[in-house]
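Allow me, if you will, to draw on your knowledge of protein folds for a short while. I have a record of one protein: its chain in single-letter code and its fold written as discrete structure tokens. I remain grateful for any guidance, and I place the record below:
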Amino acid sequence: MTAPAKGSDTAFVYSELFQEYDYGGGHPLKMLRLKLTHRLLKSCGIFEKENVKFVEAVPCTRKEAESVHDHIYLDVLKCIDEGCYFGKDHVRWGLGYGDNPMFAGVYAGSMLGAGASLQAARLVHEGKVKSAFSIAGGLHHAMPARASGFCYINDPAVAIKYLIDKGLKVAYIDIDAHHGDGVQHIFYETDRVLTISLHENGHYLFPGTGFPEHIGMGKGRGYSVNLPFLPGTGDEVFTWGFFEVVLPLLASYRPDIIVTQLGCDTMDTDPLAHLRLTTNGFIRMVEYFAESGIPWVALGGGGYDVPKVARCWSLTFGAMAGLDLPDELPKEYIALLKEHGYSGKELRDKRSVPQDKDEIHRQRVGAEEMLMTLRQEVFSVIGVK
């Protein structure tokens, strides 16, 4: 095994070319959120800091994508970029309707996003940085031969596959509102990856999976961990569940490196999910990763309140680099928000969303029931006492 060397810097992996990867005007996933994150950090002077590295993203190779994905499926994506028409056959690949439209650039953009996440993993593994953030990554729903949930190439899985091929034990922690089903599926039968997903209960939200009894198979039995939360869950209960699950499992599993999916669709203002987190709860979890001392690959993910995503991910990168960002948004960034029809003046939410005691109690009881199953079925396998 080649353990990650100890770097001291933090890398931000990005490309302006991400803006050319466009799902279409009516689609909820906007590449603008990536641009706004980059511009907010730039306006705060982050990229001028000595311990920060800006890394231009490059696409992953076909061989690297095939470490996870079926080669015929990749041929289909590439053919879309070249203007091919599939009739009704595209449906078998999850393409061309609803979540996963077919458009020019879908292959090139997906390969660029996957390449960025792979770069982040490589930089951390090689000890060039202590942590790296690929904000275009985190597309955790894609299956080996099928697009799903806005995701065409599963960049977290591509990055994780690279790391385990280097002999590393990987813990993947996913705090997106939606279950990280694609990553779980790909590593469901191995103990080299511990997948932990905290998300809204699948009875109420896509993809309808991620229940605590889904714990892995074969050598992977006990290494898939799911903690679903009831709709309406806010900072208090979600972060309680996070610390009850993530801390003991990481302490017992002792990964060489962590890969995190930091979707922001858990926010109370997000239009596609039903959780009620604010930047306060989100940053508590992010700060834990930053303070853990474990080599860290951070990926983006969901989030459909565009300016809120930019604020969350800017706070994330600040925590990764050990920098305290000013609460007042820079004037040039406020002007950019207005240019795109948004507003805002402050980086952090002032307080958590108010909830009455009965509501919090109901959410906590629901989470405790799920946690009980995990303690019975998973914790002993990982060695939690």
